[in-house]
Amino acid sequence: MRRLAASTAVLLLTLTAPLMAQKPAAPIHSFLFGSWVGGMFPPPVTLSTQECLAQPMVIFTRDSVMRALMTSPAYEQRMIDTVRATPGGFEVHLFPAQTPAQGGFGCPNPDVLRVQRRGDNEITFPGCADFPFPLIRCGSH
Predict the structure, then answer these.
(1) Structure letter (DSSP) for residue 21
(2) One-character DSSP codes across 44-80
(3) Residue 90 forms beta bridges with which residues?
(4) Which run of H or of E encompasses 132?
(5) Domain around 133
(6) Which long-range contacts (CB under 8 A, 24 or more apart) does 69-72 make?
């Protein structure tokens, strides 16, 4: 009886050890994580990494996306509900705005942000009037 219990325990540990050792997969939108500049205006070509990080236009994290506003020193933050990979980028679904003043990115649907990946360090928000220009990742130039 003890032999059966011991061999069962060893078998279970052998089967589950590889599963426990695996790292959790990165979120599909991990490419977006970080600070981005441009979007409202053409991205500057002579901006240092330090200058870029001091005033990014958009910041992506695992759970939220923040954007700079021309009328406020604070960033507007929207929480991410889900993200879906698309052939050319991502479709980010945001939780509904908490206040009428909390907007989006000038996109047709304020709760959906479509992100087109244009290269290793460049993205656009197609159809979003507030961000007609490409954005580049801080630290990539």
Answers:
(1) H
(2) PSS--HHHHHHS-SEEE-SSEEEEEETTEEEEEEEEE
(3) 85, 115
(4) none
(5) 26-137
(6) 70/40
Total tally of structural domains belonging to the chain: 1
pLDDT at residue 9 greater than cutoff 50: no
Whether residue 131 lies inside any domain: the answer is: yes
pLDDT 10s digits, 45-63: 788 888 888 889 999 999 9
pLDDT at 10: 46
User: Does the residue 12 lie in any domain?
Assistant: no
- Residue from 43, 134, 34, 28 nearest 91 by CA: 28
Cα 45-80-54 angle, rounded to 5 deg:
30
Q: Residue 24: which pLDDT band, with cuts at 50, 70 and 90?
A: confident
Residue 81 and residue 65 in contact, taking contact as beta carbons nearer than 8 Å = no
